[in-house]
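Researcher: Structure for this, please.
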Amino acid sequence: MNYFNIEGYIALSEEKLKEIVEKEALGVVQELFKLLNNNFQKYSNAVSILFHKMEQIAHKPLEKTLILFLKKGHQLDHMFKLGIIEYISSEGLIQALSDSDSNLFDSIISYLIYSRTSYHIARLFYRIRNFTPISNDTVTKALIKYFEKVGIDLFFQTKIFENILQEEEFIALINAESVNFIEKFIKLIGESYEFLRDYGDFFNWMTYDAPEVFFEKIREATPNHLEGKILNDLKREDKNKFLYILHSNLLRFVRLKQVISLLSDEKSNFFNLFLEIIKDLIKENDYILASLGNYFYSLGELFSKSLKEKVLRIIEKSDLDDLNTLITLRWIECLSVDELKELFNNPSIKLGESLESLLKEVLHNAYDSEEIDLASLANLFYKIHVHIDNEYIFKITEVKDYEGENELKEDFLYYLAVSISKVRNEDADSLIKLLKLIDSEGNFQFVSYEGKKYIASNNNLNLEKKGIEDIDQIKNLSELRNLTLLNLSGNKISEIKGLDNLTKLTRLSLQNNSIKKISGLCNLKNLTYLSLSNNRINEIEGLEGLFNLYELWLNNNSISEIKGLKDLENLGTLELYSNDITELKGLSAQKKLWRLSISENKLAELKGLDSCNNLHTLYLGQNSFTEIKGLQNLMSLESLDLSDSKIIK
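Model: Predicted structure, token format:
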């Protein structure tokens, strides 16, 4: 090597540096990695700048060299930390992963487990899943293999569960006998489950996103020391400890019959303490209530005679606050049809009248909207209508004439419609007629996909995470001509189609799918919001005629060029972060653009924003430019983000 000093490399002209890289790329890259190995903190910034320069003037020889390192699994730490991995194209990644001599995938998994996940490795996994032949089954097997080696402690210390692991992979992981995940998990937290708070990311994931099978497996485990500890803490009747267990979602680790046994115990005060705490949580609109209601809803035969008697005594009092508490816990729904009939027909109890009174109180604002579980109340009304009094819903539809907030009425009718939408197909026709009587204004309509019905409420339809592969297979969708909001995110859609009749749509969400091309939108002239984030799109196209579009989300795709925005003159927000964009061009029509996010791309310079003189917020972090030029005309700019940039002047 003629030029050993890093500053010397940086000072070379582009022509000279290109000549050296084309002849000696392997040697140059080896020298740079040596510097990082010797003193990463000292040399990382300079090495990052030089890699960027080389990528700009000699991409092919540099990529070829990096692929050699990648195949062997060498220098992964430096490649991820400095984002050098981003200089390898999807085609190069496919080549590296497809080579029979490559141990790259195993190396990536190993690095993932030991290093804790970072943005670059999460993005690499995204590229692996979407742009390479590696199957999800291969990913699953590799993850299981490494957890066999390292145990599960690192599961909590990394963010693998949040950024990398898909639900089906986690299920496979906890089912793998060789990993023994459940037994190790119980052992790890059985002595002190408070440690979960130390791993906030895992705790949040467990509370909101962990699949139910995770909790089922733990409840079924034998012996279960974790369950024993939680039960012992509950028996102490310590209100603070009780609240901690509820808020930590730890009750889901305990078999339901054990909790019912505690609630049924006539000698303890547990039942009264429990109701007192639930009433407090209702007033605070606590997030845990929905989870508790679902937990108890499966009571069935577990609903002990003693607990039923306590519930019946509460109902007999006809106290609306107590009744609301039982509805929130879904305990009334757990009563058998015969028991409900007895309560409904008992002249001294008059359950039907009490429920009507509760609904009236709600709609007269005697309760805050957060203090009533309208979904459970509506489900109970529906259950009574189907099994006890088939005129009951017709009676309570007089809520339309009640004074009160229109929003609460609409919410209640919506939940009632949702209850109706869950019925068996053979009952559907008669109940849809019922719905039309309830909803004479036509605010609620149904669509169906693979036999399951979904409700469109007030011209809004949410079909997020329904396993939809083909929009054309959503029955009745094209008939919802007044639909204004459609959410199809988190499905398996590969092509945008079947939306031509939905000309009144203003918001369309298609993020987290498998879409490769923007198409099928030409009739949606009223769109103001469009999200296509986290797909497989590599070109901006198909947006012609969307003159009203104000917000466009295209982040986390593989877009390399900004184009196709000519008709979007009213665009105010453009999200393009985490793509492969190398130049700021194609924005000449966006004179009203207020917010632009183009972080985590491959921008070498900041030219092309002159016409965006209304720009207020600009995100440019994690790019490749080394100096700030081209922003002088942005007179309205108030917020500029340059985090993790490579600026030297």
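Researcher: Any notable elements?
Model: Confidence is low (pLDDT under 50) at residues 400-405. Residues 537-648 form a domain with the Leucine-rich repeat, LRR (right-handed beta-alpha superhelix) fold (CATH 3.80.10.10).
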